User: Fold these one by one.
Assistant:
Number 1:
Amino acid sequence: MSEPKDARRVTTHVLQEMKAQGQPIAMLTAYDFSLASLVDAAGIDVILVGDSASNVMAGHETTLPITLDQMIYHASSVVRGCHRALIVVDLPFGTYQGNSKGALNSAIRIMKESGAHAVKLEGGREVIGSIERILTAGIPVMGHLGLTPQSIYKFGTYVVRAKEEAEAQRLREDAKLLEQAGCFAIVLEKIPAALAAEVARSVSIPVIGIGAGGGVDGQVLVLHDMLGINKAFNPRFLRRYADLHGVITGAVGRYLNDVRSRDFPSADEQY
């Protein structure tokens, strides 16, 4: 059911209220004006302009190649299509790691040039300096722990993270550090459900999961995955809500046949 058009704009404060009231937060990715408009009108709370655009929009194997300019382009397109959702933009690989001044400059560019509402970056204690520097400019920051795709060559695999106690304890500590630094929310990706639920209970800020079970404060999925546009990606945590792969290829096939048979355009479809 769609939200009324006069529904209030979602802010970081609204997300905090939702956690306090036990109301689950719904978050999806979007990368362009048309689909972002549909997602926003459907009432989604948070739209993430993810660096997953590198995969689903540009066809790269990883998220690493996408640039800051490209993220700003996608974010600007999404912002123009939205009136309600909180819009969060991923800082791409190489724009914040090990350089807090560079991180601040990157975040400022995203906010000024796209009109988005917040940024997201991956990592814990190793990026606290960048998070704190960005926050000095009044820019809201969402953290991201667990499986961090920008570090895929470090991990060497997309398997579940923090299954061993040492890594789990580091994640617990990093979540606390992100909260203390001033992050307004944290994404936990592909970690054991029990650990994710424990972290969500231990911090006062919203925790949004992807492959992290149902004990967190909200969920996020990649739009192209949950709509069934991308058929090659089949993790356990993904639920497909449509088969747009079949719908689109079927429609294109029918169009092709109608053009070849000269059925399209008909007399009623010309001037």
Number 2:
Amino acid sequence: MRTVMDLLRSKPIAFNNIDPDALVIDALQMLNSVNLSYLVVKKGEEFRGVFCERDYSRNVILKGRSSSNTKVHEVMTTDLPIVDVKDTIEHCMNLMLSRKARYLLAYDDQKFAGVITIHDLLRQVISNKEAVFDNSVAEQLLSHDEGRKIY
């Protein structure tokens, strides 16, 4: 069974780190340029949290704050579920479901190793669908979708 470390190794290197004292407007521009839904907030090499699109909508827009004078550390997420690099993909999926999370923080002992997203797990399931679904389930899904157009 694949582990968190396997998944992290398969991900392309992302240049999506931002300082906690950066302005939200700069974080939004970076999100756009890296084409990701989250940024890793670090002070030097120390992990501090994650800034994502949801943080912006809930903690800036809905609270009437300005992205031009609000700092990332004021609105970032710091309480995400944690997994170990030795944990399985199945464990990650169950943890995301039970905690209703979109991101998991991966650690190797005490050292931050990366972020696992719901999209990472979906890609993993799709790429290994033979190992996830037996033929009868796959056939049921395929027959159920016959005649439907996917847009």
Number 3:
Amino acid sequence: MNHQKKKDLFILSLLMIIFLAINYNTLDNSLENFLISQNKQTAFVERVIDGDTIVSNGTSIRLLGINTPERGEFLYEEAKTFLENLILNKQVTLEFVGERQDKYFRTLAYIQLGNENINVKIVENGFANPYFYSGKDKYSQEIESAWNTCTQNKINLCKPSTDPCSSCINIINSNYITNTCNFACDINGWTIKGEGRAKFVFNGTLGGGEEKSFDLDNSGGTIYLRDDFGLLVTEN
């Protein structure tokens, strides 16, 4: 290779380095925006099925990171109405994090309205507990913080039980509750529930110092003990 060709190659290499240096941020931002766009899409909310499920363009969408009461449970209607008031007949942004579908073939997503995360807002207002169906993700900490805010404010699902026995009954582990008081407690209709749908209903009484087992088909996570009015006794 002669001297002129070496010089031309050097200049070309230098120009390429300068070009890449100048355009690196632009290319990086373009790639980041492209990746974000693949995980987001707009949707018109045409129907609210319950507090954590909506329909858009005929597709059922299950809100990630949360679980609201099932039909017939305490605050079911209130949770549904709360979500309707927020997003029904509005254009929202769906953000997909992790798995795209659950076992019922519903699309899994976080819902953004403007700069607000609707999933977080539902928990913060006490209409859902945290529920990490596919494991924790980028919004899990916000969801957990929202639940802490809810319990501090003692509203809706976070409203504490006023039953005299609520200070006596504790969850020992994933199979037992115990009565630490020296008198019997009527726990008929009390429920223990996982983050998802798994639930066990107690009957009868629990004597002072006694334990009672429960069978909860729970995949892990927090379990919640509620009195017969649906008010929160304790969680573990």
